[in-house]
Design goal:
8 helices; 8-stranded mixed beta sheet; 8 strands; 246 residues; TIM Barrel; alpha/beta
Length: 246
Amino acid sequence: MLGLVHSYESFGTVDGPGIRFVVFLQGCPMRCKYCHNPDTWNLSGGTQTEAADVVKEALKYKSYFGEKGGVTVSGGEPLLQLDFLIELLHMLKQKGVHTCVDTSGGCFDPSDARYDRLLEVTDLFLLDIKHSDPEGHRQLTGRSQEKPLAFACFLSEHKKPVWVRHVLVPGITDDDTQLKNLRAILDTLDNVQKVEVLPYHTMGVNKYHALGIPYPLEGTQPPEKERVENAKRLLRAGWQKNKEAL
């Protein structure tokens, strides 16, 4: 099966446990204001690649994975290419590789039986929860938060391990009310093993300029260390399940 692949990262250390081979798929329905990969948005880009060829490339680095590492499929939004994603992960599992999917859940459809198959071939989900407030989520991403939250609940119901990631953007996602509301959402889930606060950065600005796209957060600076620590404290305070993983 052919999929649209944007790029690879051979030795990823921030996309799941251990050393990861990261596959970035092309295409994303969201337009997050802080996105640092606008070149992954359009499905007209990327390179058509067989799932078997992606596996072959990943296995070149299997000796570096150790006990914890493996392959993470990111994007863009990997759920946008669901059939290709499932085939790729199935092949990796056959090779004994730990599999991880980095997603916002923005394409989730609870009536689609393929998601049951996705659970079977995925060991860990990195779930990027953008904003706790419905309107805040729409303003930040251009999309409703209904599907992402439904996917979070779906994963919880099936007890699939999840690491929650939250990008901390000054003036948008860093106020205490938003963070406390996000913690309240996390408290309804039974499968969260880890919460990661990702400080906003400006490393993708040059991509916008090169693509001729106005950068939505022009002038926004990364959060101060104190605000990052505050977010970590609020998002993790009171968390009971899997507390040792935090």
